[in-house]
Every structure is written in structure tokens, then in C-alpha cells.
């Protein structure tokens, strides 16, 4: 990193300096080249093509990754079908559960290595991959392992059974966690899997494939095919896939829904979001400001449920804005492997371009842009935490998902007004409400069209709790008991 020390300025004119506290990457074992994981073996791609995965904080290459085409996907689906017929669907739930518990335990043992790789490949601060992504991924495996032999109790008198081969396609913002959300319930319910991680962040899925091999799962139960959108499309269009589980953009979700219309395939779509974070006058304001920061700036705003629209009740607008700007000044943007870092690197050059385009659009639309004055490294992809003040409902920065550390701020006077504004978007994934009044929270949660509404907190996840969207944020739920249903016929 270019700047060695980060300065933190506080309101009362004190200045602190944080010495760098980098997490070591010495223990990380990465191959130079990754093949496809098909039928329990590492297989070269039939096209012979590979692509680079880079560290977005340094722009250095981390590894070459195999690019799977239709032929490779066909091999993977055949392996998954064979494993389904021969082993996995015949195995008792208790036995399946043991394998999934084993994956969970091994993931915990290797958590440090997975966390460092996640930060190197994706750009997210080590604090998040270490404290959120990897532990939550492991807890999803633990949670669903527990259900594997209890499906009859989960769905009494409905004779639940697996669907067959599940095709799973994941995005780059929570690479391993999204894989865990998909793999754990699919395996627990007796399905076999062909998984395609996002092209910019395939490494932890490939490391998980190594771990699955070590855990001795029967060959073909989990197959990992890496590549771009065309690889994902080959899974979606394969006639012998029974279920598609997709997390990603609404645009691709629509393509997938069209592609499988009229086929036997079942589908769950976890798509984009444009969440409202709503601060009432009676809210605990310091906590609310932390919630706003956590909601949009951590993980660089690369969060489907990011609180990217802020609504502040008029009476506390000035106070909230002052506190928010002060807090933004203390955020450290930089080396994802530094334990002090709050905001890491933007995941890719393409995503940075998209965000920069929205920064121009927001200014052109007439909103006032405010950015934290923090230094950013010269190399790599970075965006300073950004506010757009005086935004209005019709602005594109208010209606469209930016997927970066950019917050559009509006005010409101009444409950009815803010509900109307909050619901006025094509999305409906999540929202946050900050108030002292429980009754207001219940009123808001019942009227807001959002799959998750957090009250006096933000971005809290738990494997026992279902997650999913309304409207163009998709359908189907992942997590909890609900997360088993899309993988079962009953
Ligand atoms: P994306 O849609 O571009 O890509 C997602 C995945 O789909 C990648 O693996 C990609 O290679 C693959 N893909 C691309 N084109 C495809 C096609 N035609 N057919 C099949 N697969 C294809 O999304 P992204 O940029 O990787 O991720 C960001 C998006 O994901 C955001 O919109 C975000 O809101 C959303 N997201 C939603 C949730 C949720 O739970 N609702 C969670 C995380 C991310």
C-alpha cells in the first residue's frame, strides 16, 4: 500500500494514527492454475482456455482459472446425475448429514486461509471475510447438516424427496457465503450439484472443492465449473438439470427465467436491491449512523441488501448529516488485508467504471455529491465513500442499483410518506427502520414490500433466518427451514 499510516481525525481536533496491521498471506496455498472439478477429479477444460483472476487491490494476477464450455458442463451434469442415482439420493439423511458436518468443521479449521483468499480475490476487508463471510458460511453448513435427517419432521406427512441435479450460479460480492447458501441446503435435501462461481471471485469455491475432495464426498456429488456468463447459460439450458438456483443481477435473472420457461426446471432467483434505510426523529441517532455506515460503506456497498437509499425525518436531518459526515471521515479505505481497513477495493475495473458512471449521473441529475476526504491507494480499484444529498425519487441514483459505496439521501415528514417513497422502486429485497417505538416498527414492517426489514440494526444474517426478495429482487427464500423447500418435491 502506498500510504503507510492512516490518519483519523475526530471532532474534538485530536488526531490518531493507526499503524498498519496486515494479516499475513504466507500460509495461503494457491495453485498457479485451477482446473474444473468434475466427478471428484480436476479436469482440464475441453477448450484449453483459461482466464486470470486478479487481486483488485494490487491488480496482480493470483491464478489462471479454467473456462468451461457446454461440453464441460455436460460432463459435470452427467457426473452429478450419476452421483445422484448411485449414491446421494440413496444415502440416508443421517449419512448425508455427516458429510455436511465434516465440510463445516473443515471449513472452520481452514477459516483463516479462506478469509485471506476471499479478501485477496474479491477486495473485501479482512475484518469482514474473517468475522462474517467465512464463519457464516461454516454455520450454514452446520445448520443444514442438522436438517439432513429431519426432513420428515420439517415437512410432516408430505414425504419430502430431492429434485435431482441442481445448477447453482453465484455472484462476486459474497463469494463463499453465496456458495454455502446454495450448496448446504441442496446437499442436505439429497440433491447433487453443478456450481458456477462468479468469474472474478472463483478461488474460494475452488478451495472448497479441494476441501470437499478431502472430505471424501462421493465423486460427482459436487462439481465446480468456472467461467463467464456463457458457462452459467450452459448450466441453465442443460436439459438434465432439475433446478436452477441463481444469485446475481436482475438483468441476468430475467434471462434465466425466460430460458427455463416451459421446461420442468424449478428456479429460485435472488436478485438486486435498492434498500431504504429509514431514520425517525426518535431513533438512537449514534447507533443509526453506525447502521447507515454498516449498511452502505462496508463491503464497498457490494451488498444486494445494502442500505443505498437513506431517508431521514426532517427534524433530525442536520444532526444525522453532521454525524454521518464526521463518521465518514474516520473510515479507512485501503489494503483489504489490513485489519484496520473499513472499506476495501472495488471488485473489478468494470464495476469501478459502473460506479464512476453513476457518480457522473448523480451530479448531472442535480444531486449534491459529498465524498470523504480519505486517501486512496494509487494502484487498484477504489471509490471513496460517497453521499448524494438532495436526491429525489425520480433520480436514477435513487431508482437503480449502483452496487458501490454510494448513498442517496432524502428527507421525509410522515410515516405514510416514507412508506410510499421506500416502496417506490422496482426492487424489494431489504430495508432498515430506526426508531424508539416498537409500534412504528410493526407498522413499517407490515407495509414495506421488502423480504427483510431490520429494526434498529442493519445487515444481520443468521442461517436460521430466511432471506429473499419481492418484485424484481427475485423469488424463493434461502436460509432457515424455508431454504430447504426449493430443493424438495413434496
Ligand atoms: P451477474 O448477474 O452479472 O452475475 C452473477 C452470476 O451469473 C455470475 O456467476 C455470472 O458469470 C453468471 N451469469 C452471467 N450471465 C449469465 C447468463 N446469461 N446465464 C447464466 N449465468 C450468467 O451479477 P454480479 O455482478 O456477479 O453480482 C451482483 C448482483 O448480484 C447484484 O445485482 C446484487 O444485488 C445481486 N445479489 C443478490 C443477492 C440476493 O441474495 N438477492 C445476493 C448477492 C448479490
Please summarize the sheet with the most strands.
7 strands, mixed
Task: Decide which structural class fits the backbone.
Answer: alpha/beta
**Topology-level CATH name of the largest domain:** Aldehyde Dehydrogenase, Chain A, domain 1
Tertiary shape: globular
* CATH homology-level superfamily of the largest domain: Aldehyde Dehydrogenase, Chain A, domain 1
CATH class type of the largest domain: Alpha Beta
How many individual domains? 2
Could you tell me the radius of gyration in angstroms?
Answer: 22 Å
Please identify, by name, the CATH architecture of the largest domain. 3-Layer(aba) Sandwich
- The tally of helices reads 15
Strand order of the biggest β-sheet: 16-17-18-15-14-19-20
Task: Determine the mean pLDDT.
Answer: 95
Into which percentage range does the β-strand content fall?
Answer: 15-25%
Structural summary, described in words:
- The chain is of the alpha/beta class and 490 residues long.
- It has two domains: 33-271 and 473-489, Aldehyde Dehydrogenase, Chain A, domain 1, CATH 3.40.605.10; 276-462, Aldehyde Dehydrogenase, Chain A, domain 2 (3-Layer(aba) Sandwich), CATH 3.40.309.10.
- 38% of the residues lie in helices and 19% in strands.
- The chain has helices at residues 70-88, 93-109, 111-122, 126-147, 151-154, 175-188, 203-214, 229-237, 250-260, 285-296, 317-329, 349-364, 396-399, 415-423, 438-447; strands spanning 6-9, 15-18, 33-34, 36-38, 41-43, 50-55, 60-66, 161-162, 165-169, 192-196, 222-224, 243-247, 266-270, 276-279, 309-313, 368-371, 386-389, 406-412, 430-434, 452-455, 474-475, 488-489.
- Strands 16-17-18-15-14-19-20 form a seven-stranded mixed β-sheet, sandwiched between helices. It has a six-stranded mixed β-sheet with strand order 11-10-9-12-13-21, sandwiched between helices. The protein has a three-stranded mixed β-sheet with strand order 3-7-6, covered by helices on one side.
- α6 links the parallel β9 and β10 (192-196).
- α3 packs across α4.
- The longest helix has 22 residues, at 126-147.
- The termini are far apart.
- Nicotinamide-adenine-dinucleotide (NAD) is lined by residues 169-173, 178, 196, 198-199, 228-229, 232-233, 236, 247-249, 252, 255-256, 270-273, 304, 401, 403, 429, 469, 473-474.
